[in-house]
Specification:
Distance between the termini: 110 Å
Order of helices and strands: HHHHHHHHH
CATH superfamily of the largest domain: NADH-ubiquinone/plastoquinone oxidoreductase chain 6, subunit NuoJ
CATH class of the largest domain: Mainly Alpha
Structural class: mainly alpha
Strand content: under 5%
Number of domains: 2
CATH architecture of the largest domain: Up-down Bundle
Helix content: 55-70%
Radius of gyration: 30 Å
Largest sheet: none
CATH topology of the largest domain: Four Helix Bundle (Hemerythrin (Met), subunit A)
Length: 203
């Protein structure tokens, strides 16, 4: 068994074990850290299979954005008043372990990429200059309209989610742009004419 194939089995095993830990651990922060390790291990398998676009997208979108945001939200909701600094230390060992495993996987991936390919060289994307270039060319030529339609649907979904979660609270001030635009000068400034009054003993 050559080194790239062995690295593939190691990445797959780490991904399976960490995914099992996500659904078995009781702590939500530990589950989030294990889910980060799962995504990273799956990304390593895709990079090893020369699907670099999928691997990088998985790391950037899920590990770099979604999971980090989810981790911060879970930590903010899990911390109780007065126990913030005491509760952070219990997550440090698992975080260091996850970081170490990810570093080892990166070194193993570099070594496997230098040793050779795992699944053979019959890749149609190699003739187009790489997986990312081939996918981008196909996405923006043959599948341009479905790509634009998906972008419009995602934009509508974001706007709909904001509108559904928007709640107006009582006793709070809100701006009304239509009333601000239609305001007149008489509504802002009012001149009053008052007669002068004199009192006895005052100058």
């Amino acid at each position: 068994m050559d080194f790239p194939l062995l690295a593939f089995y190691v990445f797959a095993g780490v991904a399976a074990l960490s995914a099992l830990g996500v659904v078995t651990v009781r702590n939500a922060v530990h589950a989030a850290l294990l889910l980060v390790l799962t995504f990273f291990s799956v990304a390593c398998t895709w990079l090893l299979a020369e699907a670099e676009f999928l691997g990088i997208a998985l790391v950037l979108v899920y590990v770099g954005a979604v999971m980090v945001l989810f981790l911060f939200v879970v930590m903010m909701l899990d911390i109780k008043p007065g126990e913030g600094r005491r509760g952070i230390g219990r997550h440090v060992p698992l975080a260091l372990a996850v970081t170490g495993i990810m570093a080892l996987e990166m070194f193993a991936l570099i070594g496997a990429q230098g040793a050779g390919q795992v699944f053979g060289s019959a890749d149609p994307a190699l003739a187009a200059g790489g997986n990312t270039r081939w996918l981008g060319k196909a996405l923006f030529t043959a599948y341009l309209y479905p790509f634009e339609l998906a972008a419009v649907l995602l934009t509508v979904a974001i706007v709909a989610a904001i509108m559904l979660t928007l709640r107006r609270r009582e006793n709070t001030k809100h701006q009304d742009p239509s009333r601000q635009v239609m305001v007149r000068r008489e509504d802002r400034v009012r001149l009053l004419k008052m007669n002068a009054e004199s009192h006895g003993g005052e100058q």
